[in-house]
Amino acid sequence: MMENYKLIDNVALHQYEFRIGDLIPRIEYIKTKNGEIYLTHTEVPSALEGKGVGSSLVRLALEDIERQQLRLVPLCPFVAGYVQKHPEWKRLVMEGVNIA
To answer: Quick one: CA dihedral 84, 73, 16, 26, positive or negative?
Structure first.
């Protein structure tokens, strides 16, 4: 059962996050001035692991990145793995970036 978590773009901390009770699963990012976004690290609190929280977070982050028309550089292995499993998102990946 997919929960509808609300994506928060925490600009001050440079991360996308959910607030689930006291827990804050997050994807850290670096945005450049020329329209790239590097997703560097995904962290899901262990109490939430295996519930699809990480995947929901990545999906909503990708939707937001697309809305902002940013070019994605998925440095985080979890994000890169998600894009591999859902190749329709490869359209956001910056040209010349290889997702093995």
So the answer is: positive
What CATH number does the domain containing 27 carry? 3.40.630.30
In-domain check, residue 1? no
DSSP-derived 3-state class of residue 98:
coil
Q: Would 98 be classed as within a structural domain?
A: no
> 56 is in which domain, residue-wise?
8-92
Helix, strand or coil, per DSSP, at residue 26: strand
Q: Is the sign of the CA dihedral 36, 28, 78, 53 positive or negative?
A: negative
Beta strands in 19-94 (DSSP E): 26-31, 36-43, 71-74
pTM score, two decimals?
0.94
pLDDT digits (tens, 9 = 90+) for 72-99: 999 999 999 999 999 999 999 999 998 7
2 lies in a domain? no
Contact at 8 Å (CB) between 54 and 63? Answer: no
